[in-house]
């Protein structure tokens, strides 16, 4: 038995519009959520055209010209904009009948390279029983025939398995949202022996240790510790007629252990400085409403907590390199404000997407990013800044 993908109906229209506009082929990403029983696809987004393609009206005719690096970079950028629980679930290609026999090979290559690039950035480890199948969707631009297959990304020799692709209306209209605020105070020593104070590397190592603490922490949902396998909605009152907006769990507390559970020997290390990450971060995860388990919800929220901090540090370092150059001299006390998190609602969905802005960034720049990365236009008044900046 192959996997079944339940797909937001609007995606069918989006893909159909793409197939009439872009010849001879167009690629893109599928975004959604995996669960043990079924997978949900709630957005599809085309690969943004490169600058030279925008000016050049003649598009490349052979699949050999697919720019793998461009597509994987797009996937990495998009994954930063996804709140907990959502991920890049697969890749699609819409191609003319002449190109269809090469499409499957192209898709297979893309799926593995996208997954490799996303895994490299993650600070959390996938769970044992986690779904590792990713979707390869092929659409013929002439006949509109849809073929969906999956590859197991844990197995480099994996061959294609057939999968069902089923459209459903209002699929993402009533998902459950889990919100929490996490106070961060991470102290990362910089060893005197570490070459040229590689801040980025040291920060990543420090975040790695902190992410293990988050993975091992206890979550209180509405003041209670709930058993992993209980249903998240158990004991929740069903509001009659309230199917439109998703249920919100905003009273979630994260209890991290002080120190580690196993005793370790103390070491003395000579340090030449330290990095401190401090502040309150807003975290959010979404979960489908088909009998979700507590452990699925908590896992999604843990990953959002870890991702939001590591993504921000990554964005800050990218910004510093662009603005100050990689070889910064001197090692004085400096304060950098990490970018703030914001959330943006998507049409027809209770699920919001996320992004980050620096203090001096205008709403217009955020709107441009949503159009480029997600092919979605966003109203300036719909951009909700989730956090205070405390200097």
From TrEMBL:
InterPro entries: ODR-4-like. Its main location: membrane. It comes from the Eukaryota. It is found in: Membrane. Pfam families: ODR4-like. GO terms for biological process: intracellular protein localization. Keywords: Membrane, Transmembrane, Transmembrane helix. One of its GO terms (cellular component) is endomembrane system. May play a role in the trafficking of a subset of G-protein coupled receptors. Belongs to the ODR-4 family. This is Protein odr-4 homolog. It comes from Podiceps cristatus.
């Amino acid at each position: 038995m192959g996997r079944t993908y339940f797909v937001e109906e609007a995606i069918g229209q989006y893909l159909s519009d793409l197939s009439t506009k872009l010849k001879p082929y167009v690629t893109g990403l599928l975004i959604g959520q995996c669960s043990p029983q079924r997978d949900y696809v709630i957005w599809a987004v085309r690969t943004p055209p490169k600058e030279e393609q925008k000016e050049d009206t003649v598009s490349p005719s052979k699949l050999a010209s697919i720019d793998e690096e461009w597509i994987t970079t797009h996937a990495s950028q998009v994954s930063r904009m996804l709140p907990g629980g959502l991920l890049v679930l697969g890749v699609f290609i819409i191609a003319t009948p002449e190109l269809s026999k090469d499409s499957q090979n192209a898709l297979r290559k893309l799926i593995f390279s996208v997954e490799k690039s996303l895994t490299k950035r993650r600070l959390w480890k996938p769970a044992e029983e986690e779904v590792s199948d990713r979707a390869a969707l092929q659409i013929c631009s002439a006949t509109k025939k849809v073929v969906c297959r999956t590859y197991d990304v844990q197995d480099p020799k994996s061959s294609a398995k057939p999968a069902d692709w089923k459209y459903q209306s209002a699929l993402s209209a009533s998902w459950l949202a889990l919100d929490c605020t996490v106070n961060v105070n991470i102290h990362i020593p910089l060893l005197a022996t570490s070459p040229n104070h590689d801040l980025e590397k040291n920060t990543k190592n420090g975040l790695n240790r902190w992410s293990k603490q988050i993975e091992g922490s206890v979550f209180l949902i509405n003041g209670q510790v709930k058993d992993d396998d209980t249903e998240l909605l158990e004991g929740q009152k069903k509001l009659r007629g309230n199917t439109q907006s998703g249920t919100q769990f905003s009273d979630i507390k994260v209890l991290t252990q002080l120190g580690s559970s196993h005793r370790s020997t103390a070491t003395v290390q000579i340090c030449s400085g330290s990095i401190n990450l401090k502040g309150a971060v807003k975290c959010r995860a979404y979960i489908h409403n088909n009998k979700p388990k507590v452990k699925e919800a908590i896992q999604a929220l843990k990953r959002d907590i870890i991702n939001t901090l590591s993504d921000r540090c990554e964005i800050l370092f990218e910004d510093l390199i662009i603005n100050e150059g990689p070889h910064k001299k001197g090692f004085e006390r400096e304060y950098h404000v990490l970018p703030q998190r914001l959330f943006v609602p998507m049409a027809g969905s209770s699920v919001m997407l996320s992004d980050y802005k620096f203090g001096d960034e205008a709403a217009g720049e955020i709107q441009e990013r949503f159009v480029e990365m997600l092919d979605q236009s966003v109203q300036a008044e719909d951009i909700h800044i989730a956090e205070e900046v405390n200097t």
